[in-house]
Amino acid sequence: MSDSADYNARAKPASGRLSLVGAAKPAPASPARPQLHPQLHPQFHPREAEVFFNRAELDAILSVYGQKVAEGEWRDYAMGGFRDVAIFSVFRRTSEMPLYRIEKRPKLARKQGAYSIVAATGLVLKRGHELRQVLKVFEKRSLRLIDA
Fold this sequence. Notes:
Layout: H1 3-11, H2 55-71, E1 76-81, E2 86-91, E3 100-104, E4 115-119, E5 124-128, H3 131-134
Antiparallel strand pairs: 1-2, 2-3, 3-4, 4-5
């Protein structure tokens, strides 16, 4: 075989020959994907709305929280919004269990009331329909002397 014949063979790449210059890579054959119905695919499921405190509720809670911080009783808080409950937790120190949890459960609004104060032991201290009334649990009661 001559040099010129070999050069001409290389100049035009054959379909079976590997060429690194000027040839586009063939697209890999992909297996047929089954098409999922949009409502069955997890990407298309709408997220359920989370429950959270509105601005007026947060103002009332933070007002009480500010008073207790000023008195030195509380030091930290945490908030969380979930599918069925919003929680405002109050701590004496950041490393311990919450002293109190202020919970909002809208599903209980017509029954027992959406708002509740839960102690660290799990005891429900107060429950009601209006947050301001429920937060009165934290007001200091004046001590009176009783004549015996």
